[in-house]
Amino acid sequence: MTALRKTVPSEAARKRLIGAVHFAAKKRGIDGDDYRDMLKAVTGKESCSALTLPEMGKVLDHLNGAARSRSASEVPQAGKIRALWISGYWLGVVNDRSDASLRAFVKRQTGIESERWLRDPAEARKVIEALKSWLTRVAGVDWGRPSDNPRTRVIAAQARRLADHGVRVNLEMRGFAVTGAAGLVWYEDRQLDALIVDLGRELRGHLGMEVGA
Questions:
Q1: Where are the alpha helices (DSSP H) in 28-149?
Q2: Distance (Å, rounded) from C-alpha 127 to C-alpha 148?
Q3: Could you tell me which residues come within 8 angstroms of residue 139 by beta carbon, excluding any fewer than 6 positions away?
Q4: Model confidence at 3, in pLDDT bands (50, 70, 90)?
């Protein structure tokens, strides 16, 4: 009976913790590969059922700590990393724009499994600067002043790369054709993004690279 009393509470606690981990992860929109990557980054294991009670507690601390620590200044860093990665794709620098490929890049730079787990701003800046340097080195992106919209710098680099392939682009006319709006300097980010994709498709075609959706 003594052994039974020790086992039952432990199993009940284990089930409660597994449920709490799943609930916390779901609440933060973490599932699939991201969920497994998070578990591996925190515990070295990819399945909640394989975790010990202390490890599950560690995962909960991580999830709750991540939610508390994601200030307004930290959240955009993961978004900026992803935006730079996609820009690299449309510049013909990044071959594979998938999440798995981005995670592999982040891990090479920091040892951390995913950009979503870069809780230290210094680590995020390290990835951002590595990406910007790569795009400058390979695609000639001039990032200009801190106040400049990086999308316009990507577009300028795309136009130069296309010119190297004999394609002269009038950005004002091309922008109007893509968005239906005049005045490139006044474009919203979504309009600049549309132009980046349009130019990127053409550029990747000239580079003989696969063009995704």
A1: 32-43, 53-69, 75-90, 99-110, 121-139
A2: 20
A3: 88, 91, 92, 93, 157, 161
A4: very low
Q: What is the pLDDT of residue 155?
A: 97
pLDDT for 120 equals 67
Parse the chain into domains and list their residue ranges. Answer: 2-69, 75-206
Q: How confident is the model at residue 69 (pLDDT cuts 50, 70, 90)?
A: very low
Give the torsion sign (CA, 140, 130, 94, 198). Answer: negative
- Kindly tell me the sign of the dihedral angle through the C-alpha atoms of 95, 98, 104, 105: positive
Is residue 63 within 8 Å of residue 39, measured between CB atoms?
Answer: no
User: Which band of pLDDT confidence, cut at 50, 70 and 90, is reported for residue 116?
Assistant: low
199 phi and psi angles, rounded to 5 deg: -65, -35
* pTM for this predicted structure: 0.66
- Band of residue 12 on the pLDDT scale cut at 50, 70, 90: confident
Token pair 């990507």 in the structure block, residue: 154
Gap between the Cα atoms of 66 and 44, Å rounded: 18
Residue 168 tokens, joined: 């002269």
Q: Evaluate the CA torsion angle 208, 209, 210, 211 in order and state its sign.
A: negative
Report the 10 Å Cβ neighbour count for 161.
24
Residue position matching structure tokens 């992860």: 25
